Task: structure prediction
Amino acid sequence: MNPSSEVTALKGVGRDLATKLAEMDIVTISDVLEHVPFRYDDFVTGSLTEAIHEDKVKFTGQVQSEPLVRYYGKGKNRLTFRLLVEERYSVTVTMFNRAFYKAQLKLGEEVTVSGKWDLHRMTISATELQFGAIEGELTPVYSLKGDMRMKTFRRVVELAFAAVESVGERVPDSIRTAYRLLDRMTMLKALHFPTHRKELTAARRSYVYEECLYFQLKLQTLRLGKRQGQGIVLPLHQAAVDEFIAGLPFPLTGAQKRVTEEILSDMHRAERMNRLLQGDVGSGKTVIAAIALFATIRANKQGALMVPTEILAEQHASSLAPLLEPFGIKVGLLTSSVKGKARVLLLEALRQGEIDILVGTHALIQDTVVFKDLHLVITDEQHRFGVEQRKRLRAKAAQADVLYMTATPIPRTLAISVFGDMDVSIIDEMPAGRKEIETYWAKPEQIERVFGFVEKELLLGRQAYVITPLIEESESLDVQNAMELHAVLVERFRDNQVGLMHGRLGSSEKDEVMQDFKDNQVQVLVSTTVVEVGVNVPNASIIVIYDAERFGLAQLHQLRGRVGRGDAQSYCILIADPSSDTGKERIKTMTETNDGFKLAEKDLELRGSGNFFGTEQSGLPRFVLTDPALDIQIMETARNDAVRLLRSEAFWQTSDYDVLRHYIEEQGLLDGERIE
Ligand code: ADP
Ligand code: MG
Result:
């Protein structure tokens, strides 16, 4: 059967199942084959007598007792029955919300159950039940959507493999031979039904290489294509820029000087600038933006600064204006609250070139916003924008230079391989005289002392953040929630105003709370992590983070960066009762260093990039099986291969590379438009 046939062509897949598959974007048989497991459960299968307490186990046995079902709470139920294992041991099996098995489990029936083993009670809390005996030791686990059941999906995969004889190769033979990669059918089969670890490792390696190669082909096509042209040379008025820098309220740090040079020389070159500026929180990225904007305006062009939230837009506008306006540069602010006449006037001034720099949220990319001659686009906290928004912003000025600023520290090797189409500048030095934030770890039972400490800071006229992971009480999690804590703190800090901020507030409500905090109308701000990255309230000197072990290092570091922005000594108190070793390690690491890059590397070491970067945190592309941090060598190999291929005659002219070439053509990568 042809892999591109629809799933309904498989015997055993009817309309209903096809609909459920479609919800998972699975339409063709090939889609089924490509939906590879994201992990494998590796059960201890040996003998029951060897099973260790609390281990994951998998036993086959005969149903020995009539299953019992107990119903409780909102439609919940528990199924219990006894299983005779190894013809000798009677084991209790419990399963939650699987009442439907009751009718199917006949006495004497052979079943295999897997789950957690309780040695003392001779009980297995099963999460899965299969009819029949054990097949392999590695059970594939798929990510599923909607009503799809794991078992059903596994059956569909089996049907798909039974129906299809071969699939097209995606990696050219020459490369596959050179690296001893598996052919595609063998690879997919091994990923879905690995018989042992070694086979899985080989399959995974082949898959990751393929994924990296395609990713790098895209990236390098963009990068090499970009090098070839367009963009314009911005006349650089070095003397004026020097004067501007000399007039700043502080001398630039060495790192700031270096990145300034990198950026200015990009702007002065014929190619479009496409640069990522990374600098830890507080490292002084805003002033770099100001310098680049200044140089742009001196060359008679306009600039735009796009940020993710209105608060940040206002903050940037009000920190840029005093730096730039003395030079006759007009800074405009466009947010959704600029309405009616004011908006019309602002937009008109922009079109006429009377406004030099426009700061705003994604409102900047609306069609009604027309620049006279936009030449520099800066985005702050770039990961917060969708690709589509960034593309539209770029489209506003085809030749404009683009600078992305981010505080997410991405280790250099990773940045180069994954943001390979961008140049990367790093500010790796803090302004002199900045006081290190002191970070402490407190146990939950020490909370009253922590409050006492907060109180002292409040008495000094400072402000405090109190961060919790949850908005409201959760049934399943025993962690602090913002609402409850807010109520507690209102009582505790009666002499002060205590504000509450969380993701369920509308954006104008959030802005209002934030503004009150900035204006010191509110002294204690209880918040979930929605407290914006980049928010600058220099008078806040203490941040208390509840259930700190629940946060990743990157997030803890971002949160900590909310304080230490003024002259006062600042403090970060992590309240944690870490039961896991990584939790402990993370909290300890936080107390030991303030360096975001060091933390990033530590976090990669502890958890791998998948966790560190979170989902929308980093703007890193999504991969199926590749972990850009752990698979860095394969990524680098693929990058070199991609560059070599793209530069070779053979790639463009021989049929060996048809698949790859078609891919590049299909992606529309050759028409000069850069995409991520
Ligand atoms: P971030 O990189 O987090 O965006 P900011 O640009 O907001 O950092 O800078 C943080 C603070 O440091 C600001 O108050 C800014 O004025 C100040 N700052 C920036 N550069 C220097 C410097 N070279 N020396 C002293 N203070 C600086
Ligand atoms: Mg900033």
